[in-house]
Amino acid sequence: MNIGTDIGLDYGPATRDAFGEALAEAGRHRLDLVVLDGDVANSTRTEYFAEEFPDRFFNVGIAESNLVGIAAGLAAFGKEVVVASFAAFLMCNAFDQLRMSVAYPRLNIKFVGSHYGINIGQDGPSQMGIEDMALARALPGFAVLCPADAPSTRKATDAMLDHEGPVYMRVGRPKFPIVYRDDFEYRIGKANLLRSGDDVTIIACGLMVACALVAAHQLAEEGIKAAVLDMHTVKPIDSEAIESAARHTGAIVTAEEHLLAGGMGAAVAQVVCRRYPVPVACVGLDDTYAESGDPEHLLTKYHLAPQDIAAAAQSVVNRKQHVST
Amino acid sequence: MQPSSPAQTQQRSADELRQISLNMSKQIIEITSEAGSGHPSSSLSAIDILTCLYLRPIMRYDPDRPEWPHRDRFVLSKGHAAPGLYVTMAHAGFFSQDLLPSLRKNDSPLEGHPNMRAVPGLESSAGSLGQGLSLGVGHALAGKMDHGDFHVYVMLGDGEVQEGQVWEAAMFAASHKLDNLTAIIDHNGYQQTNAVGKVMPALYPLPPKWQAFGWHVEEIDGHDISAILHTFEEPPETGGAPRMIIAHTLKGKGLSTFEEDAKSRKHGTAVKEDHVQAALDELQQQYQNQT
Question: Which ipTM was obtained for this model?
Fold first, then answer.
């Protein structure tokens, strides 16, 4: 991918790499931490933890239901448990186990789904987690995280482990552009403003944060000042930041690599409607699966590219003017 | 030093257990009838095993310290047998028997299916079938990691083992030599709509399937108190294998009110108020014939 290189963004490690490294580091001082894998440790990068702590790592095999069920038993016993698999397999195959064995008894387990979105490219739709956030949002008590780059994923991993209660975090397969270059704070439930602007706020998560920064750059050339808010925590959503953005810029665009049904955009729109109604446009997968292909080609074909975010911003700015006249 | 639980110094005799099981069977009929719903027949098939586990007691636990780390764990996977477990746990001292008539009523902790956050001592929330064995495996695995001295018991329904997750858990348990795990199938032969053998004939025979998955399999009469005690109190050497006890039981414990439904033994149906006394009398008669 080349997204963001035109505005000077450097590429860092994949967010799955950042997660894997942070998890192995955490294992050194969290002595009760147990990691469970569904035979994809070399993909999710829990292999780093496994190499260092083989006695606290279990490959449960290709059996996601049992993967989640065993995690529930370990957590009920009192172990600190992290479960990682592909976003699609973990959330879709084991949803009832997440509901019945984890969310309902409110067990403190951390779930990480890798290979989210269509940016995984060539492996195609069966491997693409595009409904995972909607499913996780529908589990009472779950926090849902979608960090934008490697540095924030490291901090998100630590924050996730410190968090009391179940968490779902999605991490990506390819290298992502780095959007957090300087020191920054990462708090679950607290969105980070990465770029200021008065005309429209683009609220994005994951890879779409880099796309939003590119879009903001494009919009600036057309005289539209766009703010970019990293909504790395999709649940609990930062309602204060959303209301503040609506009040300040009067128009909102959301961008996520996820189905529009039940994702981050839906969560943001709900807050906007409830607190301070302004025009909203949501960029995401519109009731469709993607296909095999080059990641950037797919992002363009399925309308998740920076130019799609910029076009959506243009449209809400126009609607805002229409409303005010 | 062997940790002890002060509440359980004396073992009850088989005769005492038969009497307790009778009383608890009657309570199952009564509280589900009072609730107007629930699963009395699925509870009655399990009640003799529950009686032995909790009230002999075979399991080590302390009702005053439900989180006691050394306790044995009992996971009810067939969550619809909740009335049977509630009655048993009340007799075991986890909560007052006065609470039993609140089953399924507004604001009662005794929900239609078990909620482990509502009732102290419940080890699982259940009701969506197929999940309890994995939970038990998690507890047993933690026990192995920490060199724990407790044992884990999981009770499954026979129809329930149609769920694929059960076999995922079975594979894992045998692969990891979880010999601190004992599963029990309450093999009453019926599921919600029909006999298990009618719904899924190829589920039978059960024993070789579990043996093929690496388990040590035994079959017992799940209503024979002496046989149950013998099975649990004199465990065989399994060479590291987890244990599967297939308990042949009667859904509804053979009561005519349930037997009249040839297809499913009145799954999920409470005894109507005007039939309750007859059912209680029949239980009493059954007990007298047995002793």
Answer: 0.94
